[in-house]
Amino acid sequence: MKRGLVMEGGGMRGLFTAGVTDVFLENKIVFEGAIGTSAGAVFGCNYKSNQPGRVLRYNLKYGADPRYGSLRSLLLTGDFYNKDFAYREVPFEKFPFDTETFQKNPMEFYVVCTDVETGRPFYYRCEKGDAHDVEYMRASASMPLVARIVEVDGHKLLDGGITDSIPLKKMLSLGYEKNVVILTRPKGYRKERGASGTIVGVALKGYPRASLAMKMRHLTYNQNIRFVEEEAERGRALLIYPREELGISRIASDPGELMRVYELGRGAGLRALERVRAYLGE
Fold this sequence. Notes:
- The protein is an alpha/beta fold.
- It is built from 13 helices and 8 strands.
- Strands 1, 2, 3, 4, 5, 6, 7 and 8 form an 8-stranded mixed β-sheet that branches.
- α1 (14-26) links the parallel β1 (2-7) and β2.
- The chain starts with a strand and ends with a helix.
């Protein structure tokens, strides 16, 4: 059976996922494929490049650096996370992404974006780990209101969490029958309709299908999590959750908070390790 890794987004809640995946990497847990949405994409790519700890190191170093992410960058460029610094200097100069290992690793790696013209999820397979692939990762993590639409290969893309926060169904469609799903919300969480969906929906009024998708996001998410839970009961998914709400902002930068959430992820990964090995048949 093909074994897959599915990683939810959630901004800096993604450091929980990074903690879990670092434990898996350190313990040689192998997947034939992985897919990530938003933070699950920009952090999860380090699984294929075999770089445990990299996500934590660069976020601790630059999380509070205004060149990395700041209101100033948002006002000047339209992106809270600065495109040039966060997606060029950091991955290719400051904390180099191991593109050679990424390319040699046979594990398939997919990211989820939202196509603002269709209002539907857009899936892209990253094979090189180069600047072109990083643009799709950036698109996957480009949260409405704090990021511009990313245009790449003729597509207009935003955060994949708008349309497919937990892309288990996509992995099943690709033939992955055993999937470990890392969630960044505790067991039983359901999204409620909030003002942000309406506000973003209005901001996307030039793209009516994306606007509708944003307004309906709470319903889409709740349908998605119910599907994931049902698949877990069928044995096609093993779920790893935080024990309680992580209590961290999507754009948090305080080193203590980043470390706290990462360590919670490591703890969850260690607790789940033998269960994951048994599930995957290792």
